[in-house]
Amino acid sequence: MRQPTVEDVARLAGVSRQTVSNVLNSPAVVRAGTRERVENAIVQLGYAPSMAARRLRTRRSDTIAVHLDPYSGGISGVVLDRFVHALTDRATPRGLGILVYAATDAQEELERLRALRDGGEIDRVVLTGTVEGDPRTDWLREVGLPFVSFGRPWGAERTVADHAWVDVDGAAGTRAATAFARGLGRRVAFLGWPRGSGTGDDRERGWREAMGEDAAEDLRRTSLDTVQAARAETELLFATTTVDAVVCASDTLAVGAHLAASHAGRSEVTVVGFDNTPVAAALGLSSVEQRPEQVAEAVLDLLVSGAEPGGSLIEPELVVRAGVI
Amino acid sequence: MRQPTVEDVARLAGVSRQTVSNVLNSPAVVRAGTRERVENAIVQLGYAPSMAARRLRTRRSDTIAVHLDPYSGGISGVVLDRFVHALTDRATPRGLGILVYAATDAQEELERLRALRDGGEIDRVVLTGTVEGDPRTDWLREVGLPFVSFGRPWGAERTVADHAWVDVDGAAGTRAATAFARGLGRRVAFLGWPRGSGTGDDRERGWREAMGEDAAEDLRRTSLDTVQAARAETELLFATTTVDAVVCASDTLAVGAHLAASHAGRSEVTVVGFDNTPVAAALGLSSVEQRPEQVAEAVLDLLVSGAEPGGSLIEPELVVRAGVI
């Protein structure tokens, strides 16, 4: 069945297209009787003013662009997916659409955003995974496209007032994890990523703050974010020093540490992960929950209220499990 | 910087808005010299005809609506997320956009699809998770909105020619899993979902076919799709009959079966999952990989070629692991 058009409404009401358009856009200029006739025709035909026409008129699409990374097969990718789900759940009742796009690097991402913006398909952006000196935030500010990032501005030349952002307080998460682990034994190790990633350094800081003077260098280990590398690194850790617990920068690292402990018969070693993924739940590992639903809510609040520079930190939550395996 | 408009182009070329519009939409009606002047102005100003205007003209948005379920915290949800990622990766180079939307039930989903369609925001749909007598497929056919589903038409009154679909051959997956397990021991049990779900019954069929006469009823168990329920059910299975292996309808069930086996000291029992999630990889469990990337490719092929009724089954792949835990 063909959708009714402005012409159909005009014909039924016995007026011109321009009059129909006036009823829709500037009803005050139309005489009451005429307006009523047009409105009746609109109701009778079930005419819906097209979103495309509205966009053309208002130059607004009320649609948010969100980047979807290629699926990497990893354990922690689920956090970003949860964030996108939560954003979608919450954008719909606010009358905002979510358009997802793919891009393999920052350059391609900028080109994609430019095309979407030029085409009038999006008028807001939610960035994920900010990095030091992020080229995307500079470009978005330059072209004046409102945006909020999940991830704070990283790097010496950036400040928290650089743009609108929401992030998870990673240091608070590892601080809570470390404090919990210290309740079970004094020597709490930290398994993180190689230095230089803002997120990773922040999570290490939480461990260091909770350990205070006990933050010995032989308790700090780094590994690539794979299960096998983390397992090997934890085996080295066990071989070189006394360890009561291992607080990890991700659940991927935690699975590696858990495997090392379990194969060494060290079931008394507490392993705490970060991200609270289904893997941590299945293995019975304690883990820091990032609460991506809260992040999505805060991101939308900022976006709707104008995306003014400045940010807010979401407090993560330690989920304690008994270790069923 | 303000984007150039049709008015800017008209002014620079010294023609009317209508002439610019003709150059863009019906160039044949414009004199060659005038056309060249307008085209030069378009290039000089970097004018991009807005997507909204094009949509209004063509009544096409080239945008696909895809439903995103609320995040359920489950183990297997990652398969649908992989599918959406793969769809996004592959739609972009084909010039198609992906708009994701939320809905908590079929009724809300229909209302949402209707609003997106009426607004001219989408002109194609990809459905996920078809159920018996799915109200969405009836409605989409009725309104003539092209769609392809990830999931075949289920139910007695539906045929494979009901609409365009792509699905994973679940029976082939559990057949392969069962054949593999039988190579290690004769008594292969099946842990599935309560009867009545098309997907679950299909996966059970694969086990039955591979077992032939050995498909004893005491080897077939059903459980809700939670780790704890599956663990309890597997403990009952171990208590009542001899079991060499357990083939499961999902990785969630497989984690439960694995926990039961591991706590009973039955490390010789082979557990095979379905979905090949990061949890299966972390636990070293063999699992059937659905290959959602292949599904996405096939769905887009069907959608682009006109979404004619009929479907195709993607052959899943058994990923064998040694069981590192």
Largest sheet of chain A: 6 strands, parallel
Tell the overall outline of chain A: elongated
Total discrete domains of chain A: 3
Oligomeric state of the chains? homodimer
Number of strands of chain A: 12
What is the percentage of strand-forming residues of chain A? 15-25%
Q: Which protein chains make the most extensive interface, counting residues with beta carbons within 8 Å of the other chain's beta carbons?
A: A-B, 58 and 58 residues
* C-alpha Rg of chain A (nearest Å): 26 Å
Determine the CATH topology of the largest domain in chain A. Answer: Rossmann fold
The count of helical stretches of chain A stands at: 13
Determine and state the CATH class of the largest domain in chain A. Answer: Alpha Beta
- The helix fraction of chain A, in percent, is 40-55%
H/E element order of chain A: HHHHEHEHEHEEHEHEHEHEHEHEE
Low-confidence stretches of chain A: none
Query: End-to-end span of chain A in angstroms?
Result: 59 Å
Strand order within the widest sheet of chain A? Answer: 2-1-3-4-5-11
Global structural class of chain A:
alpha/beta
The H-level CATH homologous superfamily of the largest domain in chain A, spelled out, is Response regulator
CATH architecture of the largest domain in chain A, please? Answer: 3-Layer(aba) Sandwich
Mean pLDDT of chain A: 89
